[in-house]
Amino acid sequence: MDxxxxxxxxxxxxxxxxxxxxxNGYGVGIGVIYLPSKNxxxxxxxxxxxxxxxxxxxxxxxxxxxxxxxxSAVRIFQYNPxxxxxxxxxxxxxxxxxxxxxxxxxxxxxxxxxxxxxxGDPLAARFLEVMAESxxxxxxxxxxxxxxxxxxxxxxxxxxxKSFKYTDKPQPKDVFMRAKAELERTIPFKYREFDWxxxxxxxxxxxx
Length: 208
Hints:
This protein is an alpha+beta fold. 23% of the residues lie in helices and 37% in strands. The chain starts with a strand and ends with a strand.
């Protein structure tokens, strides 16, 4: 997970870590992104807290980063609704949050991606903190690791995340990964296995 500022001239470049993690060219990651307030349409900013980063007024947003090898594969976000799923799990006493995005592209098993958040990890904790404040998700898309397009979608979990009670027990990475593996074993990664929020259209934005 990375924390970056949106540059309206270049978008948000893929990181070296993402190039290694998704070396086959496709996958879905998450991050926290800071959007310069001066580039945001006023209609979006009225209910969105601001903060100062590097001397600039910005809005923090939870971000999905979608990597594909063909432009047609990411254009689906421009023409089709998206859905989100978030569920808290306790596995072997380990707290984790399962977050998914799906794009209803017309296939029986639509495009989808997932992440599992460990509240004991500082970056995941920051992602959850931002998700409790931001009215929007940002979806950044990439083709062969080159930035392509940005979309906004309403964040349906703002109030839900505010109600979460996080564990105060240490959750080392190896312990968390075992719990994650058990979650993946018990819940098949199939669209119909999850309770989804209602579908919604995305809005393509460029902030220029």
